Amino acid sequence: MDQVKEFADVPQEFVRDGVQFINRCTKPDKREFLKISQAVGVGFLVMGVIGYVVKLVHIPVNNILVGGS
């Protein structure tokens, strides 16, 4: 009987912790949202540039190694 009660307490505790977490969280204001969006945009840009440079370097190196005709 104790195992059944203990098994039933786990979801209740999870839901209670989830509700506390949601209540503690706040939405970002406009300034904070713009800052986060700007950081994400710069990250995308940097990753794109890195990918482009790697591809740009990889093509000639691959031709040298493979010995393109």
From TrEMBL:
It is found in: Endoplasmic reticulum membrane. GO terms for molecular function: protein transmembrane transporter activity. One of its GO terms (biological process) is intracellular protein transport. Its main location: endoplasmic reticulum. InterPro entries: Prot_translocase_SecE_dom_sf, Translocase_Sec61-g, Translocase_SecE/Sec61-g. Pfam families: SecE. Keywords: Endoplasmic reticulum, Membrane, Protein transport, Translocation, Transmembrane, Transmembrane helix, Transport. The chain crosses the membrane at residues 33-54. Gene3D superfamilies: Preprotein translocase SecE subunit. It comes from the Eukaryota. One of its GO terms (cellular component) is endoplasmic reticulum membrane. The keyword Iron-sulfur does not apply. It is a single-pass membrane protein. Belongs to the SecE/SEC61-gamma family. NCBIfam families: secE_euk_arch. This is SecE/sec61-gamma protein. It comes from Pleomassaria siparia CBS 279.74.
